[in-house]
Amino acid sequence: MTQQKLRIGMFGYGCVGQGLHDVLNSSKGFKADIVKICVKDHNKKRRLPMSNFTFDKNEILNDPNINLIVELIDDADEAFNIVTTAMKAGKSVVSANKMMVANHFRELVRMQEEYNVSLLYEASAGASIPIIRNLEEYYDNELLYSLRGILNGTTNYILTRMHNEGITYSAALKEAQEKGFAESDPTLDVEGFDAKYKLCIITGHAYGLFLDPEDVFHYGISKISEFDIKYAKEKGFKIKLVPYVGKTNENTITSFVLPRFISSDKYLYNVDNEYNGVITEAAFADKQFFSGKGAGGHATGSAVLSDISANSYGYRYEYKKFRQGTVSKYTREHKLEIYLRYNDEKDRELFGFEEVSEYFSGRFYKYVIGVVNLERLYELRNQLSGLDVFIVNTGRKVEVK
Ligand code: HSE
Prior knowledge:
The longest helix is centred in the C-terminal third of the chain and has 16 residues, at 297-312. The protein has 16 helices and 17 strands. Among the domains are: 7-132 and 298-324, Rossmann fold (3-Layer(aba) Sandwich), CATH 3.40.50; 332-401, Alpha-Beta Plaits (2-Layer Sandwich). β9 (237-249) and β10 form a beta hairpin. 35% of the residues lie in helices and 26% in strands. Strands 7, 8, 9, 10, 11, 12 and 13 form a seven-stranded mixed sheet that branches. A six-stranded parallel sheet has the order 3-2-1-4-5-6, with helices on both faces. It is an alpha/beta fold and 401 residues long. L-homoserine (HSE) binds next to α7.
């Protein structure tokens, strides 16, 4: 393939934008010209001369010399505006915006075909781990049973610091924010939204279903307490936030985001700090494990550069699993064994749990381990944040009778 000369119009110059700039400057083999960078804040000090910037998006979108748009802003609605305007104008796009892709997945896939342009977004899931292209190219004909992993650097950083150093949840979150891992609104990280958007993107490439994120159950780590960490430690586990997608039968999948106990013999046990990890289980390739930095300017910038380079050779996602159409159904009829730490007996009853174990660790508190249907968790999803409970998937297989 011949390489096309790229003239890039970039949106956003935050953590990832600057990271990409550094990565591009140190890349020996690849030269791309960033023609203009569109930013929002008129008062922010920039590390480049102001002649590189514009505040007017149309200056980039209407420039016929710009043939690639790199979108790295954190406002998903505005990102969607920019990306779709660019695509309609026949420009290809590279984006790192997981919320935008997940919320408009089907439409963005359709538009790539309609306007004959490419939209690449490797950085949107797992940052530096090239999982999307692997699912597209390596697993295109594989019978993929399941995929699970750690897809959010901020929560993994917080959980690592709490587990290893015993520092508090809020201190660890503050550190993750200072290091540039967290979203501008960290609720997206700690409540599991970010991991869910990434899971939905991965699901599109792994199984060809473009799920509405609203349909996928997610639960984060904001309710974790020192007791939960103590409990996990005493049993030899770490707690990680683990999104899962997998087959329940030939043409049906299920998916969810939940904290999970991880024992020391598991791949994910040593995936710490802002690192992400992905485990695939497939019929022929069997079990595979990918790991790499899942957040931060340079790690994410490296994935964006890889997309920019792929674009210059005319690479496009073909959505092979979608075209094959083998998987057509989504279900939440799926049983999970969970640990529920709670205070109020009424909260326990919501889960239909009867047996109670009590656990002493300095202070008295209560937990129970039981089997719950994913559909029930989904029904409770709006109540969960108001309850004094914490839920962890034990990860043990539930025998279906
Ligand atoms: N806030 C995200 C994370 C950034 O912590 O994983 C990378 O997508």
